[in-house]
Amino acid sequence: MRRTAIVLAGAVLLLTAACSSGQQTNENRSGQTGFVSGNGQMSVFAPNERKPAPAFGGETLDGKEWKFADHKGKVVVLNVWGSWCPPCRKEAPALIEAAKQVGPEVEFIGLNTRDLDKAPAKKFVQEFGVTFPSLFDPSGKQLLGFRGQISPTSIPSTLVIDKQGRVASRVIGEVTTQTLVGMVKDAG
Fold it and tell me: Which residues, other chains included, contact 55 with Cβ-Cβ below 8 Å and sequence gap of 6+?
């Protein structure tokens, strides 16, 4: 009887450890397979350490063409998001406010990924009043171009690209207005 109690207690401890480990993993996931939210960690790169952003572009949610090459000489803010992503919903007002604060001399572009249909993404844009365009990238092809600079599974992610077309800073996870405005000022 005593042996059974010890075995049972050990099994309970193992299950508890397994559940707490799984809970931690679930806190980093957002209901979509392969999605890992970041912790908001910011990386800033000195000018001599900055790597060029890849050539990216394509069709926006409203059917227009957008190319990064057309915006060289401007600071560009790229935000990777999905309508299915709770942290993206949480940070949307901060992005809109940052765009308003830095003004039209900075180009904001969204990169909508993994929405297989434009309808949920368009609803997101309308619901939050997003004022800047977003590229529609259902397959993640554009996102893969940033491999080595951001992980294709870390959504949301925000990059600030300097006037020379190099990645000046990034946030993996939710970004705040104050942080993003500071990143843009530092890149300029």
Answer: 67, 68, 69, 145
